[in-house]
């Protein structure tokens, strides 16, 4: 997934970015709401991790602004304030979940996965696609009980397609999903990853919509 | 301690009784003076009469010299005699008397000057070398009646006016005390959390400063409560962020280390940081619980707060799935309690119930209007354990890993918020278990 992290504390932000990236997501880390606002307009993020107290404003105002602009990106609030009133206010403003600092990074990983599943309308972490058994929570794919190893990039690409069953995703969209601003990539990287995925999972799993993009096989 | 008294009653009674007493005293003194003056006037008239009559009597007696027989002066016209008189010689023989004169009224021996009998005032005057005496008698009833009438003429208006003056006093006192009573009812009627200023306009000089002082105090209290609240919230924020950073970095470090000594050490640091996070969390809650501002001005529906807390437990903890809870209808839990304080209270009670009950057992959260009960399965606790549960760092006999502060925090919030908090073991209608009962203060 492509994730926007908004957190002004360097130590904590650094650890979160590393954790989320190691989970195979692309992370853009912003320390100011103004920067976050620009990024959120430019990129279709799958998830925003939002601190509530930023040097240039309140996270809740940012959230309300995004929601009123029609942005439905999932949001997990990360806050050091634990007042129930703020929590209710945050959830009312359109947040999907709420994590009070300090939290365990494993907990963050689990929440991100849970929100992602909830958002794609598939709260069940276990999927079946043709002959494949997919566990979204554990990030594993099996065929006939045999595990297929995917790299983090490959998994991320596959997950993007899984999150939009039946929909055609353009190359640009997939690139956006895969890479944060600071990572460099070759223009044909998506094609390379798709072909590797097809090799591992089977040709029929990913269809090519010529000139438009890629989509998951219809089940 | 002295019994409280009412200033208004005191003033009313004091003034009314004082006025009545002064009036009575005034009437008494003036009636005595009137009596004295009347006596003087009557006496003088009596003397005058005696002296006038004496000269006439002497002439009369001289005209009938020799015939020393008793003579009765016949009236010019028949009438009732008020003043009677006798003229006697020095031996007491009556020479002359008025037609109605009663001899028994007069002393046997004639005497000069004033004298009184039980019924009459008598004046005697002598003439012709003390050989002829005249004595004039006037009944006392006449004087008494005059004195009585003059006294009455003073008393009657007073008696008539006294009720009016009592009513007047009562009204005046009531009217003048109105601002005081208004101020005191205003202060009395306000709720414990209400720190808005009292109206100090139109108060008399004597109590105006009280209202101003009260308002200043309220303002200062309000400010310090707000400062305290924001301090607690801010210090919580300031404390949590570095702990979160340290914990997250440590966890990243652990995940990057191979299984070795260093990793074990890093895990030790992680465990300590988690413990630090938990304990600082509880200490901040305790600070919040023991501070002010738990009672708020406006009543709020705490139902959604409880919903959010239960939701939080279910989403974020494994044991949360053991909670049996049905959201209340709106208005079931309405009280003037700060939402966060209530949240801290309920979180601690639920946490306690989950912690001290066997895995997979149910924890019931039951609701009645104004009441929440949290019931968990567990052994019956001894009464002395129940009594000392809310002491900080006291943990029943349980080995559960708790901060030992949860119930102390709950108790502090309950005390400061006027919330009834009781613990029961066994739980009601059960053989065993533990029950916390929260009774919200009435509106």
Would you mind describing this structure in some detail?
The complex is a heterodimer of chains A (219) and B (443). Chain A has 8 helices and 14 strands. Chain A is of the alpha/beta class and 219 residues long. Chain B has helices at 7-63, 140-189, 208-256, 261-290, 303-316, 339-355, 383-388, 406-416, and strands at residues 71-73, 84-89, 94-98, 113-116, 120-127, 132-139, 295-301, 323-325, 334-337, 363-368, 371-376, 420-424, 434-439. Chain B has 3 domains: 7-145, Beta-Lactamase (2-Layer Sandwich); 192-293, Helix Hairpins, CATH 1.10.287; 294-443, Heat Shock Protein 90. In chain B, strand 4 and strand 5 (120-127) form a beta hairpin. Helices cover 53% and strands 16% of the residues of chain B. Chain B starts with 6 loop residues before the first helix and ends with a strand. The interface between A and B is medium-sized, with 30 and 32 residues.
Question: Which strand order does the major sheet of chain B show?
Answer: 1-3-2-6-5-4
The helix/strand class of chain A is alpha/beta
Main sheet summary of chain A:
5 strands, parallel
What is the overall shape of chain B? rod-shaped
Please indicate the percent range of residues of chain B in DSSP E strands (runs of 2 or more). Answer: 15-25%
**For the terminal residues of chain A, how far apart are their CA atoms?**
23 Å
Strand order of the largest sheet of chain A: 2-1-3-6-7
Give the CATH H-level superfamily of the largest domain in chain B: Histidine kinase-like ATPase, C-terminal domain
Which word captures the global form of chain A? globular
Q: Write the element-wise H/E pattern of chain A from the N-terminal end onward.
A: EHEHEEEHEHEHEEEEHEHHEE
Structural class of chain B: alpha+beta
Level of helix content of chain B? 40-55%
Helical content class of chain A: 40-55%
